[in-house]
Amino acid sequence: MVPMIDPTQLQAMGAEELRALAMRLLTDVRHKDAVNAKLTHEIAVLKRWKFAAKSEKLLPEQHSLLDEAIDADLIAIEHELAQLATPAKNASEPDKPRRAALPADLPRVVLHHEPASTLCPCGCQLKRIGEDVSEKLDYTPGVFTVERHIRGKWACAKCATLTQAPVAAHVIDKGIPTAGLLAHVLVAKFGDHLPLYRQESIFARAGYAIPRSTLGAWIGACGVQLQPLVEALRERVVQHPVLQADETPVAMLMPGKGKTHRAYLWTYTPSVFAAMRGVVYDFAESRAGEHARAFLGEWQGKLVCDDFGGYKASFAQGVTEIGCMAHARRKFHELHASSRSQIAEEALKIIAQLYEIEQAVRDLPPAARHERRQTQSRPITDALHTWMMQQRGRVSEGSAIARALDYSLRRWEALTRYLEDPEVPIDNNWAENQIRPVAVGRKNWLFAGSLRAGKRAAAIMSLIQSAKLNGHDPYVYLKDVLTRLPTHLARNIDELLPHNWTPTAA
Predict the structure, then answer these.
(1) How far is CA 84 from CA 31, 36, 91, 222, in A?
(2) pTM summary value
(3) pLDDT tens digits for 248-300?
(4) What region holds the Transposase TnpC homeodomain domain (predicted)?
(5) What φ, ψ does residue 148 adopt, rounded to 5°?
(6) What number of H helices and E strands is found in the chain?
(7) Quick check: 57 pLDDT over 50?
């Protein structure tokens, strides 16, 4: 964004400086116009999906899940538009209608906010002349409470100075939910996989029914506010020299067509041996390798993954492929389970020896882990490779055992690179473990309602799962982050990342 220029500065500028400034301003205006047009188009499409007739091929619960995603998407776009331009409010512009008061029967927690000093700068004692009262809705499992904030007004009789404690900043400005209620909704949906229509009924049993459209709006607003935190987490993840990656299919609804499209959730995490614990999920509309390249950018470290072809282009651009021994083992396990193959059984026994060594060296310092791998694992892998080559020459082409052997032999260099680097794991099980919560949630939320909804879910799940990996209660973590985020300096965003976060002192 081009900074505001004082008129006196403009007069002092030369012709070349003025032309350069005009070009920067024109570029800034064109960029904002393009973003505004894009977001306005998205709003129009979302409204058409929400209010136009829907295909009867969708079940009722599927309709509700689509509506949840659209409500969140609309609010998220409105917040993004507000961030692009925040013009001063016109005094003649009417205020929005006041929302209904919170139920009087809900328990109240009264919080008084008074000035630090009631002494006027002129020396007179201030006199309390009134107060402003606002209410926030809070929730602990099964119980709603209302935070009643009372801000006293103090005036000086001599100089008419008015003093009042400022209104605390909130993630949703002028909204009723506390950070605790927002954290609960986010964790319930993206951590415990409860769709909003189920949360709506749970809240109704607690005494205050919150419409799912409102819950969706809150999620959309929180998603926009939390996005810088997720971007910072991604930057820290890709700074590691060893990453583990995996991907899993997720159905994405194609509104208006009554059917779903296969999208993918990609998972990236530092090596299981890295000091940092964190995971970033990236939602994409396909399994194309371009999505992995876009996420990794210019990163050229060692990538632990399966043999999926989408990573091949990254390997051609300098990324080092690290194979997964668990995938190689799985081929022999499936063969042994189906046909009791003696060759497969022997392969499983030898691979088991490698895993026994990994179990023993897991908690050793890197130098000691490397030394043990060289002296103990290297002879086993060399013998295993020789044995596989011999067996391959004896089995018929195209047989099941030949395919199992070929899988390992073609990837042998990638499968054994872990022996050279103590920070590289023997398999990709760590990344697969991080993707399991998604597989569990898939059974409950059925599909992603839109590409934007999928990306928002991936971002919030990244924070929730990373908080768990660092031993934090995700509810406590998100509540504290949502409380601090509105006033937190952007340059200190790293303090709020799950691996750096410490709770605010009570």
Answers:
(1) 10, 8, 21, 17
(2) 0.77
(3) 888 777 655 567 778 888 999 999 999 999 999 998 888 888 888 889 988 99
(4) 39-110
(5) -100, 105
(6) 17, 9
(7) no
Provide the phi-psi class of 139: left if phi over 0, else alpha when psi is between -120 and 50, else beta: beta
Q: How confident is the model at residue 37 (pLDDT cuts 50, 70, 90)?
A: low
Question: Measured between alpha carbons, how far is 242 from 260 in angstroms, rounded to an integer?
Answer: 35
Evaluate whether 332 touches 348 at the Cβ level (below 8 Å): yes
CA angle 104, 108, 113 (to 5 degrees): 125
With beta carbons less than 8 A apart as the criterion, state whether 229 and 463 touch.
yes
Q: Which two tokens stand for residue 1?
A: 């964004």
Phi and psi based region of residue 208 (left: phi greater than 0; alpha: psi -120 to 50; beta: remaining): beta
332 and 351 Cβ atoms separated by less than 8 Å: yes
Token pair for residue 494?
A: 């790293």
Task: Give the integer Cα–Cα distance in Å for 416 and 406.
Answer: 15
Cβ count within 10 A of residue 225: 18
Q: How many Å apart are CA 250 and CA 448, to the nearest integer?
A: 7
CB 76 within 8 A of CB 452: yes
Instruction: Say which residues have a Cβ less than 8 Å from residue 130's Cβ, sequence separation at least 6.
Output: 152, 153
